[in-house]
Specification:
This is CinA family protein. It comes from Oryzicola mucosus. It holds the Pfam family CinA. The chain is α/β, with parallel strands linked by helices. It has six helices and five strands; from the N terminus they run H-E-H-E-H-H-H-E-E-E-H. The protein has one domain: CinA-like (Maf protein, Alpha-Beta Complex). A five-stranded mixed β-sheet has the order 2-1-3-4-5, with helices on both faces. Helix 1 runs parallel beside helix 6. It is globular, with a radius of gyration of 15 Å.
């Protein structure tokens, strides 16, 4: 039997996080939804890889473009103009918009710069803003700057952090 490669170990770890997150959603009797930009649907894919996930997952919004953020989630054009797609304000509006446009009780939103291009001094490759909205509460945001170890690394770490953020939020609700 061959040893699992590094990518396989990471995928298993993310799968375990997704499973724990969905079990926490089930324990709170809520559905989950995502609003994803830089991950292109990787968070919802990790969740829907779990057998039985249909009873805890409502939907995933992949809003890669600014138009999609506005049309699907209701992100304000003024917010995008003033702060840009990769900002605290946009992440908050994405999370709140996913909550408003779904049957979910918790939403995870991500917007960032996965590279290899697109970074600047102000917004470097590896910058990701996370939004989380829980029904009945104000949305919250977190900022991370991941080491620029390539696009796949940044996207994988983004998925991991979003799921961990969701787990923390639900553990505080217990």
């Amino acid at each position: 039997m061959k040893e699992p490669g590094v990518g396989e170990v990471k995928a298993t770890e993310i799968g375990d996080l997704a499973d724990r997150f969905l079990k926490a959603c089930a324990a709170h009797n809520i559905l989950a939804a995502t609003a994803e930009s830089c991950t292109g649907g990787l968070i919802i894919a990790a969740m829907t890889d779990i057998p039985g996930s249909s009873s805890m997952v409502d939907r995933g919004f992949v809003t890669y473009s600014n138009d999609a953020k506005q049309e699907m989630l209701g992100v304000s054009g003024a917010t995008l103009d003033a702060y840009g797609a990769v900002s605290e304000q946009t992440a908050l509006e994405m999370a709140a918009g996913a909550l408003a446009h779904s049957r979910a009780g918790i939403t995870l939103a991500v917007t960032g710069i996965a590279g290899p291009d697109g970074g600047s001094a102000e917004k470097p490759v590896g910058l990701v803003w996370f939004g989380l909205a829980l029904s009945g509460k104000a949305a919250i945001a977190e900022k991370r700057i991941f080491e620029n170890r390539g696009r796949d690394f940044i996207r994988r770490e983004t998925v991991r952090h979003a799921l961990q953020m969701g787990l923390r939020a639900l553990s505080r609700e217990t």
